[in-house]
Structures are given as C-alpha cells and as structure tokens.
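Extended Data, panel c. Modelled sequence:
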Amino acid sequence: VCFNDTLLQAVPKELPFGGVGESGFGRYHGRAGFDCFTRPRSVLERSLRWDLPFRYPPVRFSGAWLRRALGFLLRV
C-alpha cells in the first residue's frame, strides 16, 4: 500500500507491484513476478543408486529376489 505517492511502490524490484484479478494487470517484480509469469513443472532426475527392475513395464515380479534379500537380512 502506498499513500500520497504514485510511483514509489513500483521502484523496488523485490516488492510485488500491481493488482490481482479484476483490479489490475497482475503482479510483477521479484519472486511474485516470477511466480506470475511461469508455470511450475515437475522435474525428475534419474538416481545414481541401484535401479529396481520392477519400476518399469513389463513388470515380471516373482518376489524371489525379495525373499533372498530378506533371508539374507534375517540371517545377519
């Protein structure tokens, strides 16, 4: 909110400037402008860890390797 001034609120780039909805053009400057003019997207990067084969089709999960792994862990 700016009282008795016309342009002071538009100068700092860190502050959002503008109306929202039917009151104006929308917000811009700083983080508010970035959020206004971009669309968030998901980015999934493949991990460098061991890749589990049952994550990908066609799934052929018999559970044998899981039983072996659990048997090994229970013996330790």
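The mean pLDDT is 71. This feature is highlighted in the accompanying rendering.
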